[in-house]
């Protein structure tokens, strides 16, 4: 048992700073919501850890007929590859869990939380 | 302490070997510093227990998203006059329900000034602020908050009883007399304990949300608000046939808009979630509210919507489950509540855990008091009463046919057809029903069903 657990609390619960407002949506012409996906994701604060907290076994994905993760993931982290696999990225993950919930391939997707303090940081969730 | 992380093998990893009979480091470990965890830590600390609360984010609320209104009445019992200090954005005085088709909108709009002053009814807030505030109440009562720490697994003794948690800190094992899993909708602790299924898409929805910047005066003018008054709109329809709905609510100088989408429907529709938000933002009844707004933050989170019939068992030897981890979000159509259920369950869990620790008995039998008490309170009483609601709310006709039926009926009622005389209301109803593929018999049957669910 380490004494760590009983040290004085660190000041980690401080109020978060406001994020910079992202690019506008073009209130004039064009449809509202026409924000580019990269700009949308740029509004979110991610503390990217070194360890990938999502792992995809593309061999399992090759036999998948639905590929539900590709469209359902709100962060658009999954992309089909030409050889039938799935390319993924973990850096801009909301940690919502949609991908593993809709995945129909046993063992295709291993999803854990990022290490403590890493990952998404919502300011106005 | 050297901050070396022990890699998290993940929820599918083999559980560790049973641990020996070392004494507990604390009475109660609370995993998660959201509303359920903070309430549990507060109640346990006030009941005299030593408490450590673990939070995987850098601060409480950093991983959390909600969809509209926090109802704080449950706080009256533990934090008198909480409204004087809570980090509120706006107090909800207007509650609207919109039924949408692509080109139509029927809005039922209720407003009361009695919600504009103490003790208030509902509020909007940012979860980073609200959750941090509630967690501070727990630490002020004596609980110890450890942030940036993932509880990676349960410690069990030879008899299988939960006696603590593993964390991703280098010296990461922590023992307790009772562990409260308030680790959210994906609760890997509840999954590891076998109480929660590994994946359950049928009973979860995905919430996606944009926070949009608008000057405070513009929000006041567009939504008819003054001072700290706020508006919450719930929407049904216009989600491309995906069961779920939309929401819009006002903060001080932002407006939050989003959609809640049933996972099986979302997966089958092959539509990207943000497209549904774009549809709602572009709707002729909503777009004028948001003109000139800029996206400040985009967010997504799962919501457990199975209700009473799909909640996991709430306790095991040495373990209690609270809040979203226990599937306690109430998604019952006109009532959409979650934070209050998390707080309500957490308060009871914390007290029961502290009493069990003091009595030296954290057996499953003793901890059953948790469920017994929740059944007597709103937490499980409301869920039990409304147990049929999630299924009917997400049903095919409610989601895909009735919005069009209702909108067509109202449109035909108010469309003047001179020189043709006005048709009778029943004829209009028949016409609207037929046009939307609903028979009057189905309509009657659903009416009776809904009446039974909400009686």
Automatic annotation (TrEMBL), chain B:
GO terms for molecular function: oxidoreductase activity. Keywords: FAD, Flavoprotein, Oxidoreductase. It comes from the Bacteria. Its cofactor is FAD. InterPro entries: FAD/NAD-bd_sf, FixC-like. Belongs to the ETF-QO/FixC family. This is Electron transfer flavoprotein. It comes from Pseudofrankia asymbiotica. The lineage of its organism: Bacteria, Bacillati, Actinomycetota, Actinomycetes, Frankiales.
């Amino acid at each position: 048992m380490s004494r760590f657990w009983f040290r004085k609390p660190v000041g980690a619960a401080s109020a978060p700073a406001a994020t910079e407002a992202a690019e506008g949506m073009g209130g004039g012409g064009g449809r509202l919501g026409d924000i580019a996906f990269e700009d949308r994701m740029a509004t979110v604060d991610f503390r990217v850890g070194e360890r990938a907290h999502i792992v995809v076994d593309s061999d399992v994905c090759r036999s998948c007929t639905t590929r539900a993760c590709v469209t359902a993931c709100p962060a658009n982290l999954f992309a089909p590859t030409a050889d039938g696999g799935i390319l993924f990225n973990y850096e801009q993950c909301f940690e919502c869990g949609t991908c593993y919930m809709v995945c129909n391939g046993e063992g295709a997707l291993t999803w854990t939380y990022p290490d403590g303090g890493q990952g998404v940081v919502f300011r106005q969730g | 302490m050297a901050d070396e992380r022990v890699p998290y093998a993940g929820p599918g990893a083999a559980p560790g070997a049973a641990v020996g009979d070392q004494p507990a480091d604390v009475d109660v470990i609370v995993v998660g510093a959201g509303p359920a965890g903070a309430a549990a830590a507060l109640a346990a600390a006030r009941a005299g227990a030593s408490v450590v609360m673990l939070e995987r984010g850098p601060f409480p609320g950093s991983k959390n998203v909600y969809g509209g209104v926090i109802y704080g009445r449950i706080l009256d019992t533990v934090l008198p006059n909480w409204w004087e200090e809570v980090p509120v954005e706006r107090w909800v005085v207007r509650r609207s329900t919109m039924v949408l088709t692509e080109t139509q909108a029927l809005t039922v709009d209720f407003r009361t000034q009695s919600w504009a002053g103490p003790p208030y009814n509902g509020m909007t807030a940012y979860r980073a602020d609200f959750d941090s505030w509630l967690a501070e109440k727990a630490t002020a009562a004596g609980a110890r908050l450890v942030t940036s720490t993932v509880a990676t697994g349960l410690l069990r003794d030879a008899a299988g009883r939960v006696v603590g948690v593993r964390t991703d800190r280098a010296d990461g094992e922590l023992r307790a007399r009772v562990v409260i899993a308030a680790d959210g909708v994906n609760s890997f602790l509840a999954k590891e304990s076998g109480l929660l299924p590994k994946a359950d898409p049928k009973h979860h929805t995905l919430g996606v949300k944009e926070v949009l910047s608008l000057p405070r005066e513009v929000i006041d003018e567009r939504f008819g608000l003054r001072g700290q008054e706020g508006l919450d709109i719930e929407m049904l329809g216009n989600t491309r046939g995906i069961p779920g709905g939309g929401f819009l609510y006002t903060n001080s100088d932002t407006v939050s808009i989003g959609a809640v989408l049933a996972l099986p429907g979302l997966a089958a529709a092959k539509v990207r979630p943000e497209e549904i938000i774009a549809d709602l933002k572009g709707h002729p009844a909503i777009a004028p509210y948001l003109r000139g707004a800029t996206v400040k933050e985009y967010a997504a989170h799962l919501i457990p919507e199975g209700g009473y019939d799909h909640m996991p068992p709430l306790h095991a030897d040495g373990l209690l489950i609270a809040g979203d981890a226990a599937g306690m979000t109430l998604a019952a159509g006109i009532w959409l509540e979650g934070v209050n259920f998390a707080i309500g369950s957490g308060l009871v869990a914390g007290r029961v855990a502290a009493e069990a620790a003091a009595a030296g008995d954290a057996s499953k039998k003793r901890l059953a008091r948790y469920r017994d008490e929740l059944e007597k309170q709103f937490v499980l009483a409301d869920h039990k009463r409304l147990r049929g609601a999630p299924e009917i709310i997400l049903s095919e006709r409610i989601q895909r046919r009735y919005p069009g039926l209702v909108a067509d009926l109202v449109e035909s009622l108010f469309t003047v057809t001179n020189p043709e005389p006005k048709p009778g209301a029943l004829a209009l109803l028949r016409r609207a029903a037929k046009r939307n593929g609903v028979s009057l018999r189905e309509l009657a049957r659903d009416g009776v069903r809904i009446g039974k669910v909400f009686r």
